[in-house]
Write a structure and sequence with these properties.
mainly alpha
Length: about 400
């Protein structure tokens, strides 16, 4: 310490590390008391500059990680243009189904559905996911319609359930209504009439703004008429007419996903027929056919069903000689257009021709044979006999 006083400097400036090691512990205690921590101890402590640097590195690393995550969130496997194109393709398929080959359209619809499913399983912003679920819903619904028209109601029911899931995932009320309509239609043709009514009412509870509201009421009327409930049938038909008047916006997709007035009148004609109102059935059928004649594009299936309904009404009115004339447009249909509801209605007509005074007439017997042969050459039967890639 004396030496440090001579040189006018702190003691620690004179001692090196070896000097600290040879000093007695008593001297070290005195030195520590006077000067603070030893050089050896200071060496063992992390420098403040080093600690700050380490913390700065952590901060920068965390920022880099957040930036990388944000970049991933912003990335997508589908863009706005692709989503627009998918919806345009959905609209095209829904429109073509009214006039096209059901089997060919099934394959195209299935391929587009697979593509949309694949995109949903990838990564996209939430709003793009919603758009994809909407398209997937319409496509599964269309596959349900085609499957039922090709005679496979079980497959149609499965497609309907998947469509409902997509509607739930999208949170789209209008979609729920269309899926409920599709499921009601499948249940009706499967003979589950009470379930068809439940589906129709479930769809109506979504308060849709498009023409699906009219269609749902028509489907409820259809099921009630099959159950022989005349009052409920008339009430549902009245709601369908009101719903048609209240439509305040175009349907999102159109085509099979639309219920124009001619389609509504077709349902009304069939419902009136089932409850024995033959005059009302003829009136509705004639009105529907008149509308269809003025439309540049219309559903051949709807037109065929209207002609069959009219033929049944003619028979019920006691004019069996007019049946074949009423059916002539239907009998001219190519086999690929004879979708399952059409042969089924023809079979209903053929069965009615076996009852009462008309059953033994020569014209009736000949007509029944023609109708039987016609039903055997239908789209579902061709599909069943083929090895093509149809619905399973």
């Amino acid at each position: 310490m004396a030496l440090a006083a001579v040189f006018g400097c702190p003691v620690e400036d004179i001692l090196d590390v070896d000097g600290y090691r040879v000093l007695p512990e008593s001297d070290l205690r005195v030195l520590r008391h006077q000067t603070g921590p030893s050089t050896a101890e200071a060496v063992q402590r992390p420098a403040p500059v080093q600690a700050v640097a380490e913390h700065r590195n952590d901060v920068l690393a965390a920022a880099t990680e957040s930036a990388a995550w944000a970049q991933w969130v912003e990335s997508t496997n589908v863009g706005e243009i692709a989503l627009e194109q998918i919806l345009a393709d959905v609209r095209s398929l829904a429109g073509e189904y009214l006039t096209g080959d059901a089997v060919k359209l099934f394959g195209r619809t299935r391929r587009l559905r697979d593509r949309v499913f694949g995109l949903v399983e990838g990564h996209q912003p939430p709003q793009h996911s919603v758009d994809l679920y909407v398209s997937a819903d319409y496509l599964c619904g269309l596959l349900a319609w085609i499957s039922s028209h090709l005679g496979n109601l079980r497959a149609a029911d499965t497609q309907g359930r998947t469509a409902w899931l997509c509607a739930e995932m999208s949170g789209h009320a209008e979609l729920r209504a269309w899926v409920a309509s599709t499921r009601s239609k499948v249940a009706f043709w499967d003979g589950r009439l009470r379930e068809a009514i439940q589906h129709a009412r479930r769809g109506a509870s979504c308060h849709p703004r498009g023409t699906v509201g009219a269609l749902l009421a028509c489907q409820e009327a259809d099921a009630w008429s099959k159950l022989g409930a005349a009052d409920e049938t008339q009430a549902a038909l009245h709601r369908a007419a009101l719903a048609q008047q209240d439509v305040d916006q175009p349907d999102h997709v159109g085509g099979v996903y639309s219920c124009p007035e001619a389609r509504q009148e077709n349902y009304a004609a069939g419902a009136h027929l089932c409850i024995g109102s033959f005059t009302d059935a003829l009136t509705e059928a004639d009105a529907a056919l008149e509308r269809l004649r003025t439309q540049p594009v219309h559903a051949y299936g709807t037109e065929a069903l209207v002609h069959i309904t009219r033929a049944i009404a003619v028979l019920g009115s006691g004019q069996p000689e007019g049946i074949m004339a009423a059916l002539s447009p239907v009998l001219a249909m190519p086999p690929e257009q004879r979708l399952d509801p059409i042969p089924q209605r023809i079979q209903d007509l053929a069965h009615l021709m076996t009852v009462g005074r008309v059953a033994t007439g020569s014209a009736t017997l000949a007509a029944r044979q023609v109708l039987s042969d016609w039903c055997h050459d239908s789209a579902p039967r061709q599909l069943a006999l083929s090895s093509g890639d149809g619905p399973h």
